[in-house]
Amino acid sequence: MIAGLFRRASARRRAVEGLHVALSMAARRPGLYTRLGVPDTVEGRFEALCLHAILVLRRLNRLPAPASEVAQDLVNSVFTQLDASLRELGVGDMGVSKRMKKLGAAFYGRAEGYDAALEAGDAAALRAVLVRNVLGGEGDGRGLAAYVQSADAALAGADLDGLLGAGPPFPEPDGFAPASVHAGDGGNS
């Protein structure tokens, strides 16, 4: 399937758009905001989109060719959407360029931080980077970190056909611990 898919640019573009839609839908799941503490703001939604895109890219970067091409096309698709969103918000051409550079730096910085923590299996480092970036410094990040670890494990079993066909196997956020600190646990991470 993959070889035939990439012979035609339009089929490849549709497949990447489908993957982008799937990760965007995952980033909009209400449980991320109601259970795991992601702020329901423009910034919080950006962070949720980045997190899901980074998790998918992490998997794509570990698969054989043509997965690297899909990864680059997915990055292009995500940033094209972000550019369009800024323009819809009324940001002018000069402002869009400056903001896109900042968004790009933020995206790649987050990718590096999430990948390093996941690769090391360091739950405390993952919680810290998620609290700082996704949760805006609020909460302990345990539920979100458990969600991310579960998503990463599920993605580790996905092949390119599966990612492009059924979509990324993200878990349901509602199945993870609430973001609030319970009385008696002291809030220590």
From TrEMBL:
<comment type="similarity">
    <text>Belongs to the CBP3 family.</text>
</comment>
<feature type="domain" description="Ubiquinol-cytochrome c chaperone">
    <location>
        <begin position="35"/>
        <end position="167"/>
    </location>
</feature>
<dbReference type="Pfam" id="PF03981">
    <property type="entry name" value="Ubiq_cyt_C_chap"/>
</dbReference>
<dbReference type="InterPro" id="IPR007129">
    <property type="entry name" value="Ubiqinol_cyt_c_chaperone_CPB3"/>
</dbReference>
<protein>
    <submittedName>
        <fullName>Cytochrome b pre-mRNA-processing protein 3</fullName>
    </submittedName>
</protein>
<feature type="region of interest" description="Disordered">
    <location>
        <begin position="167"/>
        <end position="189"/>
    </location>
</feature>
<dbReference type="InterPro" id="IPR014569">
    <property type="entry name" value="Ubq_cyt-c_CBP3-rel"/>
</dbReference>
<dbReference type="InterPro" id="IPR021150">
    <property type="entry name" value="Ubiq_cyt_c_chap"/>
</dbReference>
<comment type="similarity">
    <text>Belongs to the UPF0174 family.</text>
</comment>
